[in-house]
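Exercise 7 asks you to align residues with tokens for two separate proteins.
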Amino acid sequence: MRTKQGFPALFVVVLAAVVISAAPCGPTFAAQSSGYHLIKKVPLGGDGFWDYLGIDPEGRHLFISRATHVMVVDADTYEVVGDIPDTQGVHGIAVAPEFGRGFVSDGRAAQVTIFDLKTLKTTGTAKTAEGPDGIIYDPGSKRVFTFNGRSGSSTAIDAKSGDVVGTFDLGGDPEFAAADGQGHVYNNLEDKSIVLEIDSKNLKILNRWPLAPCESPSGMAIDTEHRRLFIGCHNKLMAVIDADNGKIVTTVPIGEGVDANRFDPGTQLAFASTGDGTLTAVHEDSPDKYTVVDNVQTQRGARTMEVDPKTHNVFTVTAEFGPMPTDVKPGERRRPPMIPGSFTLLVFGQ
């Protein structure tokens, strides 16, 4: 997500709802619409591009990365209620509620900022390898894992003490990750199009599973009850993976420029947010049957998101953009300039 942070895709893809079934058994989902629609558009303003969002469901805080700091928004009123400063090159936010702590991956500073979930005050830092990007909390090992893009590694941090447990090589370019709470962490390697299964207690890679036909995997989410991984692929697919053996259960179509996936156990919906302005909702009819029930229009550039497990609302952010600079060289990756003050929170609900 380093090179794609806040970069909007240029195409809008409208996908018809489809049903992909790998088994005839299990409950069905009759409705052909998720019911999700825009319920609130909240101008937040401020400078800086963005990356991941995070949420503290109990504390009712939504965390939004903003390049050098983290905006904190009330998840119910949508008002800005705080800020976590000096998080240089911030990518993501993870929370460990049992320890009352939050963790921010500071990409440019090669560290994690640790903060108090109640006061939002910084309480310490932990050193990582170069380029920490994706970050998750694993309740199985009580550790926070960063996935370090520039060094192709992962750093494990004890969530209680804030001490670094170790850093280990991944053998590729890591993207987002998920934890099953049973001692396994999973991570996408974007350049290899594989998923890693990691022993989160011993910091060892157990398996490397190929993802074909999925290409360039980015976002990841997990259904821990049914042992399914949901992986966003840049060839406009969401791959559903068996978390025990790495086999692909099925794939479903999504929009262009995916960067985040989430799963809501309360609604049995898996989501993919894409830069073309599409939020795809996929219902888990059974562990082997998945229905694309909606492609909700968001806004160009709204490629990362978070789901509130309490209200089931989906949060995403984006901005308005000016024209691409005329001095862009062939092959150069640059984003169009963000129009000042246009940064906006979009809230979708049923």
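Second protein for Exercise 7:
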Amino acid sequence: MLLVTGAASIVGRHVVHALAEAGTPLRAMVRTRSAIAADEFDTAELIVGDLADGRTLDSALAGVDTLLLLTRPHPDLIAHDRSVLAAAHQHGVQRVVKLSVAGAMATSPLAIARWHAESEALLTASHFDYAIVRAHRPRQHLYAQVDCLRSQRAFYGCQGDGEAVDVDVRDVADVLAHLALHPALGREVLEVSGAEPRRAADVAQALGERMGQPIRYVDCAPKDYVRALLAGGVARQQADDRAAWQLLLREGQFGTPTDTVERITGRRPRTLRSFASEFAEAIRYAAAPSPRRAAQAASEAAQPVPI
């Protein structure tokens, strides 16, 4: 039996679907029932509750041998991970696959990276067999600027000409699912990225080609980028971290690709071009959310992402 925490997050949803397609018995844990559609996880046993609730964790972890630990980017992350790992130990869980963030370390300027670094330390000091998956920035961050792209034909940032190896959240989910279904011997820390480094201007060009009109990348001051994210519904802490990440990109960090997606899943990472096509379609049908793909895109846009 597998348990996926944070199943209502954008990565968690794709993990659950990937595991369900593999036909493995699993439980999906969400904070509230309203976080998912009525039949969204109909192939999984649904657990509703908080990671700080001992009784909920007892129900969720009973009979579980592999835990996929996905925790929302929040100041409670460390406390929640500590509670889950302690309960997992009591229930005899053997393996933990944890979603973390690239650059996780105690001295990072990103709060989320510092939180994950402390959580990783809890896991590496434990008895569990584990895999830690450090994900680069998700391409799906662009959904926070849909309004700007529709009204101004532009999106904002502060990374300058810095290159990024942004990753599709579905690739992250596939790696997590594969590591849960096909555990390797030993403990490992993996970094998951896209295949090629890209500048923000490259992203703008790809979007423009798919949308059929020029798209601009507007390089701005970090405070203005944060303001644009807040207007798009991003929480303040996440907005600050995204700006800090972009400043690191500007300095040349986080621009080196890894081969993790191909090595673990056996296929190449999803391309910027394919993402741009899907993004353009989502915007094109934004005023008519009945098409299935547009509805899915809108759902994903509202979900928290790792950084």
